[in-house]
Specification:
- By secondary structure, the chain is α+β, with helices and mostly antiparallel strands.
- It is globular and about 80 Å long.
- The longest helix is centred in the C-terminal third of the chain and has 30 residues.
- It has a five-stranded mixed sheet.
Length: about 375
């Protein structure tokens, strides 16, 4: 995958189409590589290899070169390969798949380009498939609630594919798919080519023009979590502090309806508070004085300088230095692989009833009931 990144990238389009001034601000700040992003890069490399191999390309197995690799990653990549191959078959006999395809959407966005994980093109359908290895945030293929459009990243890719392939294919339907196996999330949104072009002209192009100039208004929302100034942005702070200052004066205790009003906003509030703390710590670490605060050494945990030598020393003293116990279920599944895990340990695995968790009614999980209520219902 290319190292060069577009300022108005497809992956950050949900942010800069809402908060246009954030584009140039983020472009001037360094990228931060995390364990999660490195793991995601390795997973994408494995996906590319498996899919190209399935399509008949002569490709080298990259597994030994991956910084992060385990049985879970292998299983997820294989599921992605199978999803792409099934989609290729479903999209028609003339359909062709392009893997890690460079996509240029600069007709609508200055210097706009990206890389499509899998692009399937036929005379009827253009299908964009994007692999997500993360398991922290579920990414929808559709747009925001109530939006008539789809995921902005995938629509940018679709525009790039349209620009590349429209001279060869006459498709009028666009399918956008998110494949997120670690969250068991597989989502497809379908729209017409006409609707995609409508979004490109009425939303994307004008927002991109503002973003290129650093113009427009700051706007806080879900997209803030991927912004490099998420902890220091005043607009986001104003929004979150307004929530924190919410006043309910009719009674001393909030009613269920007032609790319901606050609950959907609390996760963002907590995330913002943590982002502020992290930003302040980073500033202080770099030498900036934070009035009223100071850096101190945090709590640390004792560790062995050399585990092997420590174990040998304990053995020489006549003791057993090891506490042997069975692997946890997650590690055991990674060791055996999903199929072998089910085959060998299926009869020995139980899943106790989980603790109740309050979620919006739109959540796909069935409504919780206590063991007592289940017993009464059975009687």
């Amino acid at each position: 995958m290319p190292d060069k990144h577009a300022i108005l990238s497809a992956s950050s389009s949900n942010r800069w189409t809402h908060c246009t001034p954030s584009a140039l601000i983020n472009a001037k700040l360094p990228d931060v590589q995390t364990t999660y992003s490195k793991e995601g890069t390795c997973a994408h490399t494995l996906c590319e290899y498996l899919l190209k191999k399935a399509l008949g390309y002569t490709v080298r197995d990259p597994t030994e070169d991956l910084e992060y690799y385990d049985a879970e990653m292998q299983e997820c990549a294989e599921k992605y390969r199978d999803f792409c191959m099934d989609s290729l078959a479903e999209d028609g006999p003339d359909a062709k798949a392009y893997v890690e395809q460079h996509l240029d959407y600069s007709r609508w966005v200055k210097d706009g380009f990206g890389t499509g994980d899998c692009v399937i093109v036929s005379d009827k359908v253009l299908h964009i498939i994007d692999f997500k290895y993360g398991r922290g945030v579920e990414v929808p293929a559709s747009g925001e609630d109530g939006s008539q459009y789809g995921n902005t990243q995938l629509m940018c890719y679709a525009l790039g594919a349209l620009d590349t392939f429209e001279c060869l294919y006459s498709f009028d339907t666009v399918k956008l798919s998110i494949f997120q196996p670690r969250m068991s999330h597989y989502d497809t949104f379908t729209m017409s080519k006409a609707k995609l072009l409508e979004w490109a002209e009425t939303v994307l192009r004008p927002k991109a023009e503002l973003a290129c100039q650093g113009a427009g208004e700051f706007e806080a929302g879900d997209w803030c979590r991927f912004c490099k100034i998420s902890g220091t942005c005043k607009t986001r702070a104003d929004v979150q502090l307004a929530i924190a200052r919410a006043e309910f004066r009719e009674a001393s205790v909030m009613s269920p309806s007032e609790l319901a009003e606050l609950l959907p906003k609390l996760d963002d509030l907590i995330t913002w508070a943590n982002d502020v703390k992290e930003a302040a710590l980073q500033e202080a670490t770099e030498g900036t004085e934070i009035p009223g605060f100071k850096l101190v050494e945090g709590r640390s945990v004792r560790t062995y300088r050399d585990k092997v030598q420590a174990a040998e020393a304990v053995k020489r003293a006549g003791y057993d230095p090891y506490d042997r116990q069975i692997l946890g279920i997650g590690k055991m599944q990674k060791l055996l692989g999903a199929e072998k895990f089910d085959e060998i340990l299926g009869p020995y695995i139980v899943k106790p009833k989980g603790k109740p968790t309050l979620v919006p009614e739109s959540d796909r999980r069935p409504e919780w009931s206590s063991a007592e209520q289940d017993f009464k219902d059975a009687g």
